[in-house]
Fold:
Amino acid sequence: MMEQTLSIIKPDAVAKGVIGKIVDRFESNGLRIAGMKKVQLSEQTAGEFYAVHKERPFYGELVSFMISGPVVIMVLEGENAVLKNRDLMGATNPKEALAGTIRADFAESIDANAVHGSDSLENAVNEIKFFFTEDEIC
Ligand code: ADP
Ligand code: MG
Structure:
């Protein structure tokens, strides 16, 4: 099924200068960049975006980390985009991520883990709406 999903290149990967290498993983694996912007998130925006994790012990750290530098936010489009992106990302903890995945290759730790990706089609729709207007997706 043709889908769209939200991807974020997190501050650690942007700071490392691997935006291009990560985008290449998507484009080389059948995911088209339908929307893209580089932004410095505010504490309020990052907190709202990760509100589902509010009760988790790492919520404060997660929000601080996500505003520690600019991020690149993308809408990825393709066949089974949600699952395909999750496969390309690898496990949340880079130490458990399969070889060749983005997190295995570019991430250092479970909190600085290079990328975010929507975990379901329903969340993808909501996350895309959270960051993009219709005219920014083409
Ligand atoms: P994913 O990003 O793989 O979907 P989650 O949705 O479970 O993972 O968590 C969101 C983000 O919160 C993770 O990408 C990671 O940056 C951070 N995180 C998750 N678990 C932990 C943890 N145990 N300690 C610190 N940060 C965590
Ligand atoms: Mg998640």
In short: Residues 53, 58, 62, 92, 110-111, 113, 116, 119 surround adenosine-5'-diphosphate (ligand 1) (CB under 6 Å). The chain has a mean pLDDT of 98.
